[in-house]
Amino acid sequence: MSRHPIFDMAFARVYPMYVQKAEKKGRSQAEVDEVTCWLTGYDEAGLRQQIDQGNSFEQFFAEAPALNPNASLIKGVVCGVRVESVEDPLMQKIRYLDKLVDELAKGKAMEKILRQ
């Protein structure tokens, strides 16, 4: 199986698209940051550092302090793929983040997005 190109793509390249998607639906950059930090364990400074360094998605998740233990509760479809069925661990983490941003843009309550 070939390596997916998104693994080498800079997180900083996709992050503005996450923010734009959320802001179009009346959500904020701070909320995108909150769901991203919830999933990865980064604090605000760590997230900014990852963006400033231009790290790839692979580096971004490899250096993440800790994937949230409730990440496995993230279920649903992103880009026609069930996130809970993704076999590659890195791709699944990327899809988890995509799903969280989708839920944010769809107006879901933050408590539900963060699986509280």
UniProtKB/TrEMBL annotation:
A matching Pfam family: DUF2200
Database matches in InterPro entries: SP1917_dom_sf (IPR023204), UCP033199 (IPR014580)
Protein name: DUF2200 domain-containing protein
Species of provenance: Natronospira bacteriovora
Lineage, broadest ranks: Bacteria, Pseudomonadati, Pseudomonadota, Gammaproteobacteria, Natronospirales
